[in-house]
Amino acid sequence: MQFYSTQNPAHRVGLKEAVIQGLAPDQGLYMPVEIPTLPADFFQRLPSLSFAEIGQEVIGALFGDSLSEAEIRELVEHTLQFDAPLVEVEPGIYSLELFHGPTLAFKDFGARFCSKLMALLLAGESRKVRVLVATSGDTGSAVANGFYRTPGVEVVVLYPRGKVSVLQEKQFTTLGENIVALEVDGVFDDCQRLVKEAFLDAELREQMLLTSANSINVARWIPQALYYFRAFAQLPQPVGDVAFSVPSGNFGNLAAGILAARMGLPIRYFVAATNVNKVVPDFLNGADFQQVPSVQTISNSMDVGNPSNFSRLLALYGGDEKALRAQVKGFYFDDPETAPFHAAGASGAGLYAGSTWCSRLYGGEKLHQNPIGSLPRCLFRDGPSGEISGCGGRNLRLGAGAAGALGSISFRGEKGGPSWQRFCGF
C-alpha cells in the first residue's frame, strides 16, 4: 500500500516508511493513496464473522500487498485479544464497549496493533527505535502498556502537568524499563508541538530513529476502523441506516470510522461530540476552521485545541467541506453539564461515572435542529469523553427532521463501573 501526505499528495511512501516516519517531512499526515472497497459478500457474512476474522479481512484488504498472510494473522491476533461487545441501552441506542483492554481505553486496540506492526516492520534493524507520544491521558496509558518490554523500542511519553487524571498518569509513569514519562509545563497542544518539532529536526533524526504512536501515525489510526465493523456486525438484522456518535479530541477515532465507511460499511451519519474544545463542531456548523489554545476540562482526554486529524477528515472527503458537513454533525458539551455525575463518580459510584452523557440524559436537553431525525445510534463510551459521545447521539435523536428511523452506536472506552446505566437513567 502506498501513502501520500495530506500536505502534498505527490509525496508518496510505502507502509514501512509511513509507519516509521509517523509524520511526513512536510508535516502532513499520511493517507492511503487508494482505499479498497470490500466485496459485497463480506458484508453479507459480517454478522457471522468473529472479531479476528473481521480484522484479517479488513487488514488484508489494506495491507495485503505489504504483509504476508501469516504476518497479518499474527498482527490481528495480537491486537484483538479482547472483544468490543455491543449493548443496547434503550430502543435504537447501542453502546459499543471498548474498555476491555489492559488500560480500559479504546486506544488499546490501536496501541497493540502499532507495537506489533512496528516489530514486524523493524525485524533485523540494529538501531533502537524511539517512539515519541504526546498525551492528554488515555493515549499515554495505552501506548506505554502496548509497547512495554518490546525489544529494541523505547517509548517517551510527553504529558501536560496537572492535566491528566491520577489513574492514567500512574498507568504510564510507573512502568519503567523502556517507558519514559516527561511532564511538560503546558497543555496537550504544547506536548504535541514538541513531538512534531522533534520529527522535523533533521539533525536529531540523523542521530536516532524516531517515530510516533499518536493517531497521526497510520499504524495507530487505521486499526480503529476495525471496531466499527465489529459494532455493525452485532446490530440486529436486517440493519437499516446507522449513525455513529464518536467522542472526539484529536479526531483519529472519527476519521477511522469514515475510513470504514469508505471501505463500504453503510454508515449514514457521524456525530463529532466534543467538550468545550469545539473547533471542529464549530466548523461543522458553518464556521471557518481555526485552531485555538486548548481549554482544560474534566474530560481531559479530549482537551485538544488543534486536532491533528482534521486534515484527514478533509482528505477523506476530497477536500469537499460541504460533503463533510453533510455527513458529520457536531455537538459540544461543557463541564457544568457534566459536573453532577463527575462528582458521583468521584464518590465511588463508578470509576468514570462522572458523565457528560449521563448528565445530559438525566437533566435538561438542548434540542439541536438537524436534518437527521430519529436514528438508531452507535455511541462510543470512553469515560467522561464517551459520555459526551452519548450526548451527541442523544441530540442526534432529538433533532427534528424527516430522515426516518436510524440506529445509533456510541463507543464506551473506559470502564464506567456497573452503575453507569443507573446514572444515565436507563
UniProtKB/TrEMBL annotation:
Pathway where it operates: Amino-acid biosynthesis; L-threonine biosynthesis; L-threonine from L-aspartate: step 5/5
SUPFAM superfamilies: Tryptophan synthase beta subunit-like PLP-dependent enzymes
Lyase in keyword set: yes
Domain Threonine synthase N-terminal: 2-79
Pfam family, one: Thr_synth_N
Cofactor: pyridoxal 5'-phosphate
UniProt xrefs under InterPro entries: Ser/Thr_deHydtase_PyrdxlP-BS, Thr_synth_N, Thr_synth_N_sf, Thr_synthase-like, Threonine_Synthase, TrpB-like_PALP, TrpB-like_PALP_sf
UniProt entry tagged with the keyword DNA damage: no
EC number: 4.2.3.1
Reaction catalysed by this enzyme: O-phospho-L-homoserine + H2O = L-threonine + phosphate
GO terms classed as biological process: threonine biosynthetic process
GO molecular function, one term: pyridoxal phosphate binding
Tryptophan synthase beta chain-like PALP domain span: 96-315
Annotated positions of the N6-(pyridoxal phosphate)lysine modification: 107
Domain of life of the organism encoding this protein: Bacteria
Signal peptide feature range: none
Gene3D superfamilies, sorted: 3.40.50.1100, Threonine synthase, N-terminal domain
Keywords noted in UniProt: Amino-acid biosynthesis, Lyase, Pyridoxal phosphate, Threonine biosynthesis
Entry similarity comment: Belongs to the threonine synthase family.
PANTHER family for this protein: THREONINE SYNTHASE FAMILY MEMBER, THREONINE SYNTHASE-LIKE 2
Protein name per UniProt: Threonine synthase
Organism listed in the record: Nitritalea halalkaliphila LW7
Organism phylogeny: Bacteria, Pseudomonadati, Bacteroidota, Cytophagia, Cytophagales
